[in-house]
Amino acid sequence: MYVYGIKKLFDFKRYVLNYVRCSENMTVVNMRKDRRYNLVCPNCGAKMSENRTSRQTARDLPFGQAGDVMIVYEAKQGKCRKCNSFATVHPEGIDPYAKATWRLMVFCSLLCRFMPPDRIEEVLPVSSSTAHRWDKKVLEKELGQPNFDGIRIIMVDEKAIWKHHGYVTVVLNGETGELLHMAKGKKKKAFQTFFDKLTAEQKSSIEAVAMDRGGTYRAVAKKAIPGAEIVYDKFHIIKNYLAEVIDVVRRRAYRGEVGQIRDLIKGQRYNLFKNPENLTEDDKTSLKELLDAYEEISCVHALKEELRALWRYRYGAWAEKHFKRWIKWAREASEEKGVPVIGRFADSLENSKDEILNYFKYRITLGRMEGFNNLISRVVHRACGYRDMDYLFLKMRQQSLGVCPQR
Questions:
Q1: Full 3-state SS string of the chain
Q2: Whole-number CA gyration radius for the chain
Q3: pTM value > 0.70
């Protein structure tokens, strides 16, 4: 029986199809070298003399009901007299080390993007370790190395992905969101390894670095790229204020009060943290009762809203005036209300004034980075963890670029 078009399914250059033998669970495809073509040296392109022939096998994509497709082909070893070397010629599209066709490896890599490697064997007849190796090999070829030329803005943050505070340092391109670097730890060395990859010209193109107020990353950036400006993330500053001021005042009030006021304070933590536009009507009612009853909490809550208003300005000069007013209000409130945490927080912000106001030059935040950190959590959880740091970098770089392997 002749089946039309079957040759096109196994169209490997310089090889011809002998026969296809199908059984219930396996399809065997037999191929031989097309004798019309000479052996060509893969190193220099010169003609080679044939030395010996061996029969080798490679897995291929499932064909029909047969989940396992095996290609049997002639592998010709030749000797090149020009470069004086031996080389074995395999069909294009077959990886002799993986013993599989490239299209099967790419399909396996595509499945690994949406499911963990240990579940691949439910779809393809390959083990989880094989799927891991193939996926890594395909991603290395498809993604290549990041291009560090012309980068203007970078973002840096740490992310916990292992137990017992196992952190990685993540660096993104602030304009495109491309993952540029990932290294174990959150200390200076982890961030410094990123700058070690860059040339002097590539470093000079970086104009700004967005980060939180941690001193470790700032010190590395100032030393490696002294001409770049530091931009502190506004969301982290608000988060710091909530934890270091509002929550401290709320807990102190709860411990020091009794009776009705203590009942008003109880359960109000997230109402104090939320933005007014996110409060429900019940939340607004209970929060208003608390603010009317407790003056210190009302004061720090009002300062929170004024601090948030800083980033609503369009021009840096007006924002700087508001910033100075807020520092003055915070210090006055600290003295009048007897709440030293407000004054200490105001002092820390004043020391970081330039880094905070640099936002109005570049208008960047770590919002994209926080979203990417959540994506890391989902990818790591889906795979039940990663031990290979290089493989994790490739997986997350694929996510940041949105690239699917091409067959």
A1: CCCCCHHHHCCCCCEEEEEEEECCCEEEEEEEECCCCCEECCCCCCEEEEEEEEEEEEEECCECCECEEEEEEEEEEEEECCCCEEEEECCCCEECCCCEEHHHHHHHHHHHHHCCHHHHHHCCCCCHHHHHHHHHHHHHHHHCCCCCCCCCEEEEEEEEEECCCEEEEEEEECCCCCEEEEEECCCHHHHHHHHHCCCHHHHHCCCEEEECCCHHHHHHHHHHCCCCEEEECHHHHHHHHHHHHHHHHHHHHHHHCCCHHHHHHCCCHHHHHCCHHHCCHHHHHHHHHHHHHCHHHHHHHHHHHHHHHHHHCCCHHHHHHHHHHHHHHHHHHHHHHCCHHHHHHHHHHHHCHHHHHCHHHHCCCCHHHHHHHHHHHHHHHHCCCCCCHHHHHHHHHHHHHCCCCCC
A2: 31
A3: yes
Residues facing residue 40 across a β-bridge = 47
Closest CA to 403 of 219, 176, 77: 176
Residue 396 sits at the vertex; the CA angle it makes with 391 and 400, to the nearest 5 degrees, is 150
- Residues forming a β-bridge with 75: 54
Looking up tokens 């993540």 gives 170
Q: Is residue 198 within 8 Å of residue 176, measured between CB atoms?
A: no
Task: Give the separation between CA 388 and CA 63, rounded to whole angstroms.
Answer: 33
pLDDT digits (tens, 9 = 90+) for 266-292: 888 898 999 989 999 998 898 888 888
82 contacts: CB under 8 Å, gap ≥ 6: 41, 44, 46
Query: What are the tens digits of pLDDT across the range 1-24?
Result: 455 677 888 888 889 888 888 887
Q: What angle, 0 to 180 degrees and rounded to 10, lies between the N-to-C axes of helices 340-351 and 234-241?
A: 160
